[in-house]
Amino acid sequence: MDRVLDHFDLDYNCQEHVRTVVETMMTARRTHCNWMHAYFKKFPSKEAVLLKPHPNITEAQWKELYNLFTSETFMVRGLQKPVA
Fold first, then answer.
1. Can you state the angle between helices 15-41 and 59-69, rounded to 10 degrees?
2. What is the span of the domain harbouring residue 53?
């Protein structure tokens, strides 16, 4: 194949196509969340985090991520060992 296809004919009645799209979107979301969390961890305090939102997202989105990253559930989950 000489070129990368930029258009795909997907059959959303085909379970394999649906699974591929869902897995791709889940991977993109995890990657984005990881980038945002890495940016979040660069700040010395929680107050400093709110003063400088990530440049690629809105202030409202940054506040939602702030609430996620500072939630007790998120922090407890981060302390657990990953399943290998």
1. 90
2. 15-79
Do 17 and 11 contact (CB within 8 A), yes or no?
yes
3 lies in some domain: no
Cα separation, 42 vs 13, in Å, equals 44
Note the pLDDT tens digit of each residue in 25-47.
999 999 999 999 999 999 999 89
Domains: count for the chain: 1
State how far the Cα of 16 lies from the Cα of 61, in Å rounded to an integer.
Answer: 32
- Token duo for residue 68: 């996620």
- Inform me whether the pLDDT recorded for 84 exceeds 60: no
Radius of gyration for the chain, computed over Cα atoms and rounded to the nearest angstrom: 18
Q: Rounded mean pLDDT of 18-27?
A: 94
